Amino acid sequence: MRIELTREQYKKLLELIYMGETVINISKMTRDKDTLLLIKNILSYYKDFKSEHIIEYDKSFDEYYTTPEFDDILQCHLEEYDNYTFWNELAFRLASKDFDKIPENEKKNLNETEIFNMISKLESKYKDEFEKNGVLNLEILKK
Prior knowledge:
The protein has helices at residues 7-25, 33-43, 68-101, 104-107, 112-133, and strands spanning 55-58, 63-66. The protein has 143 residues and is mainly α. The protein folds into two domains: 7-66, no CATH class; 82-133, no CATH class. Helix 3 packs across helix 5. It is elongated and about 65 Å long.
């Protein structure tokens, strides 16, 4: 099988590979050897795609590395992802906590759609707050 890519498609593929590999392995102590070999194989075509500005090869280590220019692009993607995930997860967890405080007798006859809508409404309240004020009004209250 042969896959044909343009130079831009190859760059986009590398972005997806690095982002996916980062997300998948974020909490792992070791990285999957088969995945690393696959990545190395794909990186080995960097000269064919005239991508020396984003990938460098170190002959002494027989390894491919991203350039600082490409690292900056990847870092922007990661920061955007982290920011989006953080605020959405925080809003969802706080909304779920609020939903759990609703007495069971008020929730017992709700169907899945009604539960989803209630949590979504609670979540929207937090998202609006975070959009306006970030963490400025967030406090931890001790009981």
